[in-house]
């Protein structure tokens, strides 16, 4: 059975709560990986993995453990690309599927925005996590779990 991996360093609490409930409901082994301790309920299906505080330590841990067919929840595009290279599926915490057809364009846009910011341009940050984002994510996660659960 595929496992669910969460890049927990930047995962909104509301998305984390959705993942925990879904993992329990579908008995899906789920790992929250971060460079700090993540508060999670006691569960047979949901585990936290705290890694060292080094640069990309959580990302490296996920990449070393993720397997083909697993799902990664992340907004980190380089991590998403590495997970796709290993045969995993990737979804953002807003329910968007990242795949070979759209990841390169997103990485290019991210790099372009970084260049703008480096030149002093104020580009703003990501938009807040809305009720619509919560619904989209919960629905996308439920669809994935329905297709891949036992």
Descriptive keywords:
150 residues, alpha/beta, 6-stranded mixed beta sheet, UPF0178 protein C6W88_03965, UPF0178
Quick overview:
It comes from Halomonas litopenaei. The protein has 150 residues and is α/β, with parallel strands linked by helices.
Explain the overall architecture.
Belongs to the UPF0178 family. This protein is α/β, with parallel strands linked by helices and 150 residues long. It has a single domain (4-98, 128-148), classed as Rossmann fold (3-Layer(aba) Sandwich), CATH 3.40.50. The protein contains five helices and six strands; from the N terminus they run βαββαβαββαα. A six-stranded mixed β-sheet has the order 3-2-1-4-5-6, with helices on both faces. α3 (77-85) links the parallel β4 (71-73) and β5. It is globular and about 50 Å long. The model has no long low-confidence stretch (mean pLDDT 89).
């Amino acid at each position: 059975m595929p496992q669910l991996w969460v890049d927990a360093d930047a995962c909104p609490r509301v998305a984390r709560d959705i993942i925990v409930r879904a993992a329990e409901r579908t008995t899906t082994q789920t790992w929250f990986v971060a460079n700090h301790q993540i508060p999670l309920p006691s569960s047979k299906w949901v585990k936290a993995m705290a890694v060292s505080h080094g640069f990309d330590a959580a990302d490296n841990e996920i990449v070393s453990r993720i397997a083909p067919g697993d799902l990664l929840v992340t907004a980190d595009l380089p991590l998403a690309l590495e997970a796709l290279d290993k045969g995993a599926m990737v979804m953002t915490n807003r329910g968007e599927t990242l795949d070979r057809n759209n990841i390169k364009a997103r990485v290019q846009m991210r790099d372009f925005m970084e260049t703008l910011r480096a030149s002093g341009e104020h580009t703003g940050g990501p938009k807040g996590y809305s009720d619509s984002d919560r619904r989209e994510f919960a629905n996308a996660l439920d669809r994935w779990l329905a297709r891949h659960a036992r």
